[in-house]
Amino acid sequence: MKVITFVIGTRWCVMPVHHLVEILPARELLPLPQLASTELNRGAEPGLVTVGIVDYRGKAIPVMRLHLEPRVGDAAAPAAPGAPPIKQRLLVLGGNPPGALEVGRVDAVIELDAEAIQPPGDIGLRDHGMVSGVCRLHNAYAFVIDGTAVSAGRGVESLSTTSPGISPGASNG
Question: What's the whole-model pTM score?
Answer without folding.
Answer: 0.73
